[in-house]
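Give me the fold.
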Amino acid sequence: MTLYARELSVSGAWEFTPSAFADDRGLFLEAYRSSDLEKAVGHPFDLAQINCSVSNAGVLRGIHYTENPPGQAKYATCVRGAMLDVVVDLRPDSPTYRQWDSVLLDDVDRRAVYLGAGMGHAILSLEDNSTVVYLCSREYDPRLEREIDALDPGLAIEWPTVGRDGRPLTLVRSPKDAAAAGIESLP
């Protein structure tokens, strides 16, 4: 079994689509395979922490990132529901600096997204109780955690306005995310 890899328009970010095998009992797939990720991105992924986030429709988390260096790479997949995963390049020396791309993560196609160290990450839940699991290359350190305003017009991220069921979304953010600085605060 292998994961199909596609590089996103943000250099160093990848979408992975697994081969799924269904029968009358259900479905089986490999959600992560280290050799496939290493082949695609050109280096191993050092797993240090696994996070799980459950969100109702309209919850927007991020844009979060870890000060780089040391940075934190992530590999995220949605195990229940649907989320729009947005990756923003926050590496000043990158040719795609300040650009973003997105991947729909859901429990239908079961895609995953990999983002290298130095990239920002946001997720918008498109359905109640959507659950995303993400593997992290470093343990969380609040001293290194940073955020950028996901609604900053300078980024012009095209956030969905309706959920998976077609109903309008009302965005819900944490006070910390709502107070985050815009992209122009970066060098």
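The mean pLDDT is 96.
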